[in-house]
Amino acid sequence: MELLQALQNNQAYQQHFEPGLYEIIYNFVAPEFDPQSMTFDWHGRATGPWDYAPSGPNQGDCLLPCVHFSSSTGINTKARTFIPRQSELDQKHFNGRLGFRVKHAGKIALNVSTPLQVQWLSADIKQVKDFVDTSLTFANVDTKCLFFMDQKRLSQLRESWGKAPWSHALDKALDDCGRFGPPKTQEEAREVATRFLKTNQVYEDNVVFWGDYLLCLSLRVLLFERQADTMQLIQWIDALVSLPVWGRSSDPNGLDHNNDLSADFNMIGLAVALNWHNARLGESRVERIKQKIRYQAQQMLHWITTGRSSWPGVNTQNHAYFGYQTLLMAGAVLLDDNKDDPEALDFLQIAAAAFRRFTSNLPSDGSYHEGIGYISFGLLGLLPSLMLLEQITDQSWMPHEWFDAHFPAMNALTPLHCNSGFHVDDGDGCYPCNAAFTLWASRQSPNSQTRKAAGQLLAKLTEVDKNALLEGKYLIGNFWLTLLSPDVFDLTDVLPQFKSQSTPYTLLPSAGYCVSHLSDHRKAYFLTAPPHGHELFSREQHTYAYGHHHPDTGNVLLIDKGNWVLADTGYTYCKASSEHNVLLVDEQGQYNDNYVWMPPPPWDIKPSKVQVDVHDNIVRATIDMAYIYPKQLGLKTWQRTVITAEGCMAVVDHVTTNQPAKLTVSWGSDATWTQSSDNRWENGLGWTLSIHGDPTTVTPQTIRPARRRMDRSIDWHVLRLTSDIPVTNYRLQSLFLAPEFQDDTATLRTRMGLDNLAVSYST
For residues 441 and 529, what is the distance between their CA atoms, to the nearest angstrom? Predict the structure, then answer.
């Protein structure tokens, strides 16, 4: 009997299995499922579909269907489905993967069911390749070391502590938070991190506070062995060990992404504390710590092997970095204590295999697959893990080829006057780098060009405000700045002189970012690739990996002296095409518009690639992006051309449809728009927009984005340029002029090669 037949008949399925990890890949229709159960009011705005309930009596519960699984080997668990695409949700069609690990060859009986009334459409079993890296053995792994530390670094840290701004910031945070004693619950730890302190200082992201605090406290104890610090360290360790759950839920299907982050940062904090301070903690406490570490690693491994519709099954998403880092830290610290520990070695081998997959899936152009906003955070899961693997295996693990592309790419992406960071795509004030690892690369990379590019990137970010990076973001940022650059007391002593960009544009071919360098402090960005970029969209066919993306292919952004003349709304709980500078068709956007956690477009789309040419220092980038819109919208072509020259930018849109539709182009900004003449609008930042083309109605609108912290949400000001009537052919030119631009519009339009379209619109 085939697996699908067994599921349809609600019967067990038997098969002989060799050792390894297997996935059951399934899909079904659930006719009674209510899609509205995934929609929630978020401060007066309907948002969804959500994968987890954000509020209410069922807060944290998984809203997706779950599939129950048991086996004759004793496994009894459940796993959630993928987040369905909008087209799938409309049909109540769900896909997913659940996993199970076979330790010994033999025949195994499997039972798969769901509490919903479903129609099983397909089911198959496939073995996961390269799940374990057996090249790591007891003989070639040496964990008898101080993690992330050597004697030279230890001496430098003792000498520089308090002199460097990063260690000074750690001192302040430890003294401030230590007054409260160890939290008793994860929720209390969040309160300490975000609300208790009289200084009103947010010291850490609230999900990961506990482990990061322990990490920083361990460092100060290692350096100075103060009795008060040692006593506090023991108290915080005891409190963390006594927590029954590392996260918000004992059910990994409930808020799994918070569970993996909390569990990992708690693990790295506790594992480093044990590794650095084993002799100070006493035998009985050490044994309790090891038991807790082993238990948490076992729970994480169970989630990794079973919850394959979530982050455990992906190769290109930061939550996977942190989840597998949990196994790495546990395996290393347990093996340190007992060289004959097969389970600890198993943890290490699984983690090592995962990090080989992660580094082999980094984009070749040096970009980051989840976007600008996740570089800084994602690398906290990736790079420390690779550093520890290098330390305990004496092998090369760092992705130096990616570094060699990454830092030049991010240097090209970053303008001067960018201290406020990128409030675009999935970022809220994020730098396109991790400051600690960029400073490290600027001094430690074996490639001189990489060192120069990393140095130039930091020079830009500190050009206006020398203190911009002198204190890292949160505890964890200051920790890695302190640890990786212990001999740096002041960035101004080590950073190079800023040099101007020598080329008119930079193209990141995988990410699809075409960056026009209008001047040192002005850049225009044209995002032209599908989610995850051209290289990885076809390679990473796991829905969860795409969650942080937005429906924003074709987005145009413009920054001038640190101000976003054209922007989108950043990271929100309603990822909407209408909150990006893209096309809307009858007010509808790209695939999976308005989702909270994005699924990818259909796998069979055919993304086109941008064509860029330069003549007389005028950059022209052209691409057709109709492929990124649902077919039922009837869009035949959306050709967008972005033309840039010093002090100006033109965006030319030509749209054709199969049936008449109202077509809208949006121009959103951090500043307000004011009409100055018939076809001109002035931006509060001094830029002017003139509009040419087919009959168009211009409607100004102000939106309060649906952010996690609505009290920190700022208004987004947008002009909607909409065809007067439903049309099948629409041409529009949007011409943006810098404040000091003196050329008349007609001359400029001729110079930029723009067609002589009429001025015809209303407000």
Answer: 28
Helix (H) or strand (E) holding 353: helix 342-360
| 732-760 mean pLDDT | 78
* E strand or H helix that includes residue 124: strand 119-127
Q: Are 663 and 636 in contact (CB under 8 A)?
A: no
- pLDDT: which is higher, 97 or 755: 97
Tokens of 625: 């992006």
> How much helix, strand and coil, in percent to the nearest 5, is found in the chain?
35, 25, 40
Q: List, edge to edge, every strand of the sheet that includes 673-677.
A: 611-615, 618-624, 635-645, 648-661, 727-737, 688-693, 680-683, 673-677
Q: Is the pTM of this model over 0.85?
A: yes
Please tell me what DSSP assigns to residue 595.
B
Place of tokens 């290109």: 316
Determine phi and psi for 483, rounding to 5 degrees.
-70, -40
pLDDT tens sequence across 327-372: 999 999 999 766 789 999 999 999 999 999 999 999 999 999 998 8
Predicted pLDDT at 761: 47
Residue-by-residue DSSP string for 433-492: S-HHHHHHHHHH-S-HHHHHHHHHHHHHHTSS-TTTTTS-SHHHHHHHHHHH-TT-S-GG
Beta carbons within 8 Å of 380's beta carbon, 6+ residues apart: 322, 434, 476, 480
Give Cβ neighbours of residue 384 (< 8 Å, ≥ 6 apart).
148, 268, 325, 480
Q: Identify the bridge partners of residue 557 per DSSP, sorted by sequence position.
A: 525
| % of the chain at pLDDT higher than 70 | 92
Longest dimension (CA), the chain: 83
Residue 616's φ and ψ, nearest 5 degrees, are 55, 40
* Alpha helix ranges (H) inside 465-573: 474-484, 533-537
CATH number given to 3-127 = 2.60.120
Q: Which CATH class is domain 505-755?
A: mainly beta
User: First-to-last CA distance in the chain?
Assistant: 67
CA distances from 207 to 199, 212, 255, 523, 640 (A): 20, 10, 12, 34, 41
251: Cβ–Cβ under 8 A, 6 or more apart, which residues? 62
Residues 246, 185: Cα–Cα separation, whole Å: 9
Answer whether 154's CB lies under 8 Å from 223's CB.
Answer: yes
Asked if the domains 3-127 and 151-493 are classified in one and the same CATH topology, the answer is no
Pairing of strands 696-703, 761-762: parallel
Q: How many helices (H) and strands (E) does the chain have?
A: 18, 27
pLDDT at 73: 93
Query: Strand, coil or helix: what is 286?
Result: helix
Residue among 42, 29, 55, 97 at smallest CA distance from 594: 42
Q: Which amino acid belongs to residue 742? A: Q
CB within 8 A of 198, min separation 6: which ones?
none
> What band does 471 get if pLDDT is binned at 50, 70 and 90?
low
Backbone angles phi, psi at 559, to 5 degrees: -120, 140
What are the residue boundaries of the structural domains of the chain, listed by start?
3-127, 151-493, 505-755
Beta-bridge partner residues of 122? 27
Structure tokens at 579: 């909150």
What homologous superfamily is domain 151-493 in, according to CATH? Chondroitin AC/alginate lyase (1.50.10.100)
Tell whether omega for the bond before 49 is within 30 degrees of 0, i.e. cis: yes
- Spatial distance between the Cα atoms of 443 and 424, rounded to a whole number of angstroms: 29
